[in-house]
């Protein structure tokens, strides 16, 4: 592995730790706040930014996102995401040790399966040293639009089939992922700065969805699922539209198994189980409504 890529992966690891600590701190603070609503954005933002616990999580998460952007400038998108993907394990340990809440067996199973998939994904990307190519702007735009459409379904009509907060987690993960793809498309000597507005919009929508989800569900059902998607989806983008080399044969097969494990882990975290929180009985449309409440944390 050459020097610049090693630097990028080190930055990605640091970014993952900072982002997931930020998610944990924000969830703990937002879950105890009065109801947040996009209908009263200034009031909601004031509640968030005047809470020291939430603000500390946000600042650390924002620092983590800065490290992530720096990592993208040094290493291929797929490798950066594979390195940062272990953050869900960090989040699970924070919930267990600092949150003082035992995780249900199904959540442990979901985290474990997802981590196995992420580890296999990292192995499947072993030996990647090239940056790939710049993507066509139409491909990037199609990718962003597809993420937005699926996010709308998950947060709106699809939320009734998911555990509390999972629809918001899926929405946040997909929008942050779309923002990461747009970030990569805007960087480098052949970057297209026209995607900078898309970066800002996607991260804003991801932020709104995540804060709303924090008031509906657990940290793993919201930030955990968001983290999984925020890592796996850009890896797929790096391999498909940015032309990052991936190898063939056994590595290709391993990659399919890895993505299947990641999807299975996310499914276990999102699957309904037990009573939904009394505070909000179901995720209410519109998709990004902040009722009840690295992308920059």
Question: What is this structure, in a nutshell?
Answer:
The chain has 11 helices and no strands. The protein is mainly alpha-helical and 297 residues long.
Structure description:
With 297 residues, this protein is mostly helical. It has one domain (3-270). Helices cover 68% and strands 0% of the residues. The chain has helices at 3-30, 41-49, 52-74, 77-84, 87-97, 105-124, 137-155, 166-186, 196-214, 219-240, 250-270. The longest helix has 28 residues, at 3-30. It is globular. The model is unreliable at 274-294 (pLDDT under 50).
Main attributes of the structure:
single chain, 297 residues, mainly alpha, 11 helices
SSE order and pairing:
Elements: H1 3-30, H2 41-49, H3 52-74, H4 77-84, H5 87-97, H6 105-124, H7 137-155, H8 166-186, H9 196-214, H10 219-240, H11 250-270
Helix pairs in contact: 1-3, 1-4, 1-5, 4-10, 5-10, 6-10, 6-11, 7-8, 8-9, 8-10, 10-11
Series of secondary-structure elements, N-terminal to C-terminal: HHHHHHHHHHH
Number of domains: 1
Count of alpha/pi helices: 11
Average of per-residue pLDDT values: 80
Distance between the termini: 29 Å
Q: Report the strand count.
A: 0
Taking Cα atoms only, what radius of gyration do you get, to the nearest Å?
18 Å
- Helix content, binned percent: 55-70%
């Amino acid at each position: 592995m050459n020097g610049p890529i090693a630097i990028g992966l080190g930055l990605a690891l640091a970014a993952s730790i900072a982002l997931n600590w930020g998610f944990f701190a924000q969830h703990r603070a937002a879950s105890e706040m009065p109801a947040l609503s996009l209908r009263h954005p200034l009031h909601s933002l004031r509640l968030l930014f005047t809470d020291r616990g939430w603000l500390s999580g946000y600042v650390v998460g924002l620092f983590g996102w800065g490290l992530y952007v720096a990592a993208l400038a040094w290493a291929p998108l797929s490798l950066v995401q594979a390195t940062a993907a272990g953050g869900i394990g960090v989040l699970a340990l924070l919930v267990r040790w600092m949150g003082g809440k035992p995780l249900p067996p199904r959540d442990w199973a979901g985290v474990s399966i997802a981590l196995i998939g992420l580890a296999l994904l990292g192995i499947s990307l072993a030996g990647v040293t090239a940056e790939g190519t710049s993507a066509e702007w139409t491909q990037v735009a199609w990718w962003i639009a597809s993420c937005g459409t699926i996010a709308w379904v998950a947060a709106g009509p699809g939320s009734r089939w998911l555990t509390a907060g999972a629809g918001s987690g899926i929405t946040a993960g997909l929008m942050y992922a779309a923002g990461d793809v747009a970030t990569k498309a805007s960087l480098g000597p052949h970057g297209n700065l026209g995607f900078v507005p898309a970066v800002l919009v996607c991260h804003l929508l991801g932020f709104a969805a995540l804060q709303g989800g924090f008031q509906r569900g657990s940290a793993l059902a919201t930030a955990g699922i968001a983290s999984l998607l925020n890592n796996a989806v850009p890896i797929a983008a790096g391999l498909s539209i940015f032309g990052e080399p991936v190898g063939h044969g056994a590595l290709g097969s391993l990659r399919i198994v890895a993505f299947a494990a990641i999807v299975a882990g996310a499914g276990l975290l999102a699957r309904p189980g037990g009573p939904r929180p009394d505070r909000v009985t179901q995720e209410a449309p519109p998709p990004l409504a902040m009722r009840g409440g690295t992308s920059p944390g």
